[in-house]
């Protein structure tokens, strides 16, 4: 499991010795001895928590005498400081119990367990295990909790075979008015914190393992909490939204706003793209606000009243980092969107890649992907654009060359204007969203929310989407060596999730590399396809600008096989970027996100307990209702362990209950027992990021796989 493996890596390369069983022979006698260790759940282990025990097995071959003599030694410990061995009498093969000491040897090194054949003392088997203190990790942290609101916390103990039992308490800087913590009566690793009625900056929620060890403080896990007047911090935000009105006409929105104290909204601007054409409104602060729904810290209502326009209401879920994901909850339509704190953007030499979706003048789906090199003078030169979905897209043969300009609005902070020229000229507004500034690199690049401002006609589709800063890299095949998760959405509720590994080579035909993995697809309103293994190709398109071709989807196991679709990807970083299919009427669009290299192959269900804000991220069919969910993933322990899902889904405040699974590649399932049909009963989940500090999966994608039931892609994040 990932916590075992990553914990060992962090402790001076423990994996070099941990779990290495060595069998010796008896100087030509042919007798060999092999030693293995398993925890209470029957899992092979190489890391043992302080005071915990594992079962050892010595397998002797080459003789009928299977008895062994057990011994224990250590580089940085002697005697009981290395632990104790208790042989089991009369077992075949020979077994023993190893119990780790209360204090892990320091500096850390392997404790060696040796089994010596009683038939030949020269035949020995060795096993190296590492003793570590039982460590507790609490999520979410850090987190802001609105005064008087309720926040759930989960705790997990490392290594994975440690008992998942804890005691909880809460402290704060001034020692009083800290709020209260209540442990769940059924799941020890779950507690509910109720914030005080006044702001409190220095709150610490602590979960302590019940495993006795020295020092006892090694078993403390903490979460930092700030109790604030409002869960929504004051400042500038950008948002985007897409959906449908009550006549099933597409609607897109992008804008910016500022917030003040107590969830107040002090002003902003919103661009709306609808059947009426492009419109811009200012936000009325008197009638706009954000507030918590009931006492739930992770659920709220966002109201945006537009001067001269409608008032829209959204049900919103919040991540611990402050990202808001929302669905429309008024009577004017349906849709989903995102709102984030604004970053910093200015005129500079910088490159952005983009992914836009929308419709043409006949209502057919359109997709754009491309890259835009910007300079410090406000000029765009040397850009590229690929399009699909309409023959009159103003581009011609993809990729088409793009030029243009960009500039800040002289009156409205955070609003920028952009002109793109291909075979025709198109105009966009964009708003500065979250991420790092354009002068930095990293996994969280600056993001801009864009929306077209042209009236929809034969050469001007109605488009909206995101522009992401492109990290400077040499974008060849080698830059894409790694594992990623791709989400795709197309017409007629056609959605899919792909886990794929690119090999970083150019050894194939035409300089292509290998792209292997698995995918799940829900198409044509409920036709389910699960492909457990594909072997396709990808490749940089002859330059280093970040444009790649990928083969995706298809059905290699069908008779005859269904060929994969050709896709274009514009990369914003390694194994990250915007995707567009080149040929299908579904016009599949989406993004690729990398799995961390340290986590690949080591995901596990024990890394997932936590609170997740989940929401639909895109929808191509007005009949599929977008949702927001507060998900709580827990494990009450047991042998074998149980992994539960509970939560609430909106619209309708429906209770969710069920179980989840996860395998080491980062894929799994959620099987819901509530709500009842016709709700989606089964889902696949594809994990992406991992918090390597707290050994927790922080976000995953989810898609319904109930036959006959259409689905959208849902993104869940702690």
What does this structure look like?
This protein is an all-beta fold and about 725 residues long. The chain starts with a helix and ends with a strand. The protein has 1 helix and 52 strands. About 0% of the residues lie in helices and about 55% in strands. The longest helix has 9 residues. A hairpin with a 3-residue loop joins β45 and β46. The protein is globular. It has 6 domains: about 130 residues, Immunoglobulin-like (Sandwich); about 90 residues, Immunoglobulins (Immunoglobulin-like, Sandwich), CATH 2.60.40; about 110 residues, Lipocalin; about 120 residues, Lipocalin; about 120 residues; about 110 residues, Beta Barrel (Lipocalin). Strands 21-20-19-18-26-25-24-23-22 form a 9-stranded antiparallel sheet, with no helix packed on it. The chain has an 8-stranded antiparallel β-barrel with strand order 27-28-29-30-31-32-33-34. An 8-stranded antiparallel β-barrel has the order 35-36-37-38-39-40-41-42.
- Under CATH at level 1, the class of the largest domain stands as Mainly Beta
Euclidean distance between termini CA atoms: 20 Å
| Helix percent band | under 10%
Q: Structural class, from helix and strand content?
A: mainly beta
Mean pLDDT: 90
Structurally, how many domains make up the residues? 6
Query: How much β-strand is present in the residues?
Result: over 45%
Cα Rg: 28 Å
Task: Please tally the helical runs, counting DSSP H or I stretches of 4 or more residues.
Answer: 1
CATH architecture classification name of the largest domain: Sandwich
Low-confidence stretches: 1-20
CATH topology of the largest domain: Immunoglobulin-like
Number of strands: 52
Q: Which strand order spans the largest sheet, edge to edge or round the barrel?
A: 21-20-19-18-26-25-24-23-22
Which shape, going by the Cα principal axes?
Answer: globular
Give a quick account of the main beta sheet: strands, pairing sense, barrel closure.
9 strands, antiparallel
């Amino acid at each position: 499991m990932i916590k075992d493996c990553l914990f060992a890596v962090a402790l001076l390369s423990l994996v070099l010795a941990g779990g290495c069983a060595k069998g010796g022979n008896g100087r030509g006698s042919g007798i060999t001895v092999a030693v293995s260790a398993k925890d209470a759940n029957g899992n092979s282990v190489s890391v043992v928590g302080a005071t915990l025990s594992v079962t050892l097995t010595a397998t002797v071959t080459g003789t009928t005498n299977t008895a062994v003599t057990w011994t224990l030694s250590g580089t940085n410990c002697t005697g009981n400081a290395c632990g104790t061995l208790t042989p089991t009498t009369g077992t075949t093969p020979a077994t023993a119990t190893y119990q780790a000491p209360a204090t892990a040897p320091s500096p850390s090194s392997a404790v060696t367990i040796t089994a010596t054949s009683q038939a030949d003392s020269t035949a020995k088997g060795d096993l190296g295990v590492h003793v570590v203190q039982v460590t507790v990790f609490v999520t979410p942290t850090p987190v802001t909790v609105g005064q008087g609101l309720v926040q759930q916390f989960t705790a997990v103990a490392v290594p994975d075979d440690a008992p998942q039992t804890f005691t909880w308490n809460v402290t704060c800087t001034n020692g009083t008015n800290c709020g209260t913590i209540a442990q769940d009566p059924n799941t020890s690793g779950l507690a509910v914190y109720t914030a005080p009625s006044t702001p409190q900056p220095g709150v610490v929620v602590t979960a302590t393992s019940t495993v006795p060890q020295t020092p006892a403080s090694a078993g403390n896990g903490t979460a930092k909490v700030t109790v604030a007047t409002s869960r929504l911090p004051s400042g500038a935000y950008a948002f985007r939204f897409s959906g449908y009105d009550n006549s099933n006409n597409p609607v897109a929105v992008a804008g910016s706003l500022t917030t003040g104290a107590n969830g107040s909204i002090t002003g902003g601007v919103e661009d709306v793209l609808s059947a009426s054409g492009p419109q811009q409104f200012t936000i009325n602060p008197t009638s706009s606000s954000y507030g918590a729904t009931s006492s739930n810290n992770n659920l709220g209502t966002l109201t945006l009243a537009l001067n001269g326009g409608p008032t829209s209401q959204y049900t919103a879920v919040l991540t611990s980092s402050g990202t808001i994901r929302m669905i429309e909850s008024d009577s004017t339509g349906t849709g989903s969107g995102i709102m984030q704190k604004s970053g910093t953007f200015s005129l500079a030499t910088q490159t952005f890649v983009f992914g836009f979706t929308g419709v043409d003048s006949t209502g057919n789906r359109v997709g754009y992907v491309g890259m835009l090199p910007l300079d410090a003078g406000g000029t765009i030169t040397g850009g590229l654009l690929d399009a699909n979905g309409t023959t009159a897209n103003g581009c011609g043969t993809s990729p088409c060359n793009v030029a243009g300009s960009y500039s800040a609005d002289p009156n409205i902070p955070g609003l920028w204007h952009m002109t793109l020229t291909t075979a025709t000229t198109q105009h966009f507004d964009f708003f500065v969203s979250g991420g790092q500034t354009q002068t930095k690199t990293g996994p969280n690049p600056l993001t801009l929310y864009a929306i077209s401002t042209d009236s929809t006609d034969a050469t001007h589709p109605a488009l909206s989407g995101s522009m992401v800063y492109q990290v400077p890299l040499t974008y060849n095949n080698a830059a894409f060596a790694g594992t990623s998760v791709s989400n795709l959405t197309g017409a007629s509720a056609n959605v899919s999730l792909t886990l794929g590994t690119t090999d970083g080579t150019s050894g194939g035909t035409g300089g292509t590399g290998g792209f292997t993995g698995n995918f799940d697809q829900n198409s044509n309103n409920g036709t389910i396809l699960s492909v457990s293994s594909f072997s396709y190709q990808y490749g940089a398109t002859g330059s280093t600008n970040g444009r790649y071709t990928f083969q995706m989807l298809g059905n290699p196991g069908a008779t005859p096989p269904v060929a994969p679709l050709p896709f274009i990807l514009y990369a914003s970083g390694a194994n990250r970027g915007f995707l567009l299919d080149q040929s299908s009427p579904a016009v599949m669009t989406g993004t690729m996100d990398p799995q961390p290299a340290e986590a690949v192959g080591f995901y596990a269900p024990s890394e997932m307990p936590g609170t997740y804000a989940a929401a639909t991220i895109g929808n191509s069919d007005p009949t599929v209702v977008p949702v927001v969910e507060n998900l709580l993933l827990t494990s009450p322990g047991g042998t074998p362990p149980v992994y539960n899902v509970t939560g609430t889904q909106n619209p309708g405040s429906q209770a969710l209950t069920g179980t989840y699974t996860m395998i080491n590649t980062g894929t799994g399932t959620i099987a819901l027992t509530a709500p009842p049909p016709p709700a989606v009963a089964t889902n696949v989940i594809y994990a992406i990021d991992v918090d390597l500090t707290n050994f927790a999966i922080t976000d995953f994608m989810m898609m319904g796989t109930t036959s006959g039931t259409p689905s959208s892609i849902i993104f869940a994040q702690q």
